[in-house]
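User: Second chain of the day. Same drill as before.
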Amino acid sequence: MALDPAPAEPAAEAPVTSRIVALVSAGVATSRADLARELGVAPSTVSGRVTELIEAGVLDEGGAGESRGGRRPRLLRLRPDGGHVLAADLGGTHARLAVMDLTGRLGAVREVPVEIADGPEAALAAILEEGADLAASSAGPSSASSDASPGTRSALRGVAIGLPGPVDVVTGRVESPARMPGWNGFAVRDWLAERAGVPVLVDNDVNLMALGEHFSYPRRVEHSVTVKAGSGIGSGLIASGRLHRGATGAAGDITHSRVSAAGEIPCSCGKLGCLETIASGAAIVRQLRAQGVDVTTTADVVRRAGDAEPAVTTLVREAGRHLGEVLCTVVNFVNPDAVFLGGALSTLEPFVASVRSQLYEGCHPLVTKNLVITRATTGPEAGVIGAGRLVVQHVLADPGAFLLRD
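Assistant: Same format as last time:
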């Protein structure tokens, strides 16, 4: 994982330490001499900060780089065993958890049953418990030791969690969620931080999925729209390499766009005729049950569509068409490099084909000229990859915390 180097800051101790980590992580500087040159500070200042970071288990120094007329410099890199972060992607009935080291390498991943309807404290406690077990089992026996030294994989450095509802990222609270009883206004970030003792970031699940997919795509893209089409529908926007949340954190909430084809069907948000009521997995389940088809979940829909059952395939194709019609406005306005389709419905070719067809039909030719429309390449890991990336950047931006904790 390459981080963007931080902008130049005054040569105060904490900013210099932070900038050192950012430059090494980005590959801009690979030696103490490089750092002194990039930072414009005395080599002795750089040397002191680098030594502290090595002792804290953040950086490692070894090997020899290319000579520039003198002695070959020793190479600096982030230590993969300098600690780990926990990334969590919470759904309605399950959570996907992952451990990521500070170089951005995704480690063990686990999916566990978690009922979001049980309320925030029960769900979050389960995530912390399972996350600790996942980290311990993935790091080996040494991680379980209570006297493990700083800089081993046993050191938890941060937590990030994606939630399936609107999130105020400043306060770390959920705001007016449609399917999260008991969560409205709950201080998710503070509750987790108090118990984990590390920095905690909270965001909408599709925003994190958008981050994960955007930066994992093998071709460089600057602007992308990521759609999650499962039981519900959501989308996330990356503009000029940055996540766009909007003024109140509700950017990308296309699920509650009013569409004429939905008529007066009531939506979970309390309004009528939203996209969700005709284009989501839950909507397809409702329509199939009305036809007497025995389905209860989106997974049932995916399975039956995979068996090419005509009634199911027809509704899946129609759902893709409705989503594509709404996306046309988004894509014409944003003019992205790529549209990534994730979620359970995106595994179905009739759905993807309908979305793609609508975009080519409804968007300006200049917009679709080089547009990539594809399934998400990261699959179910997109959310935890994005969450991990976000919290790793946050942790590395303040490596002074390593020195204080260790």
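The chain has 14 helices and 14 strands.

User: Great, on to the next one.
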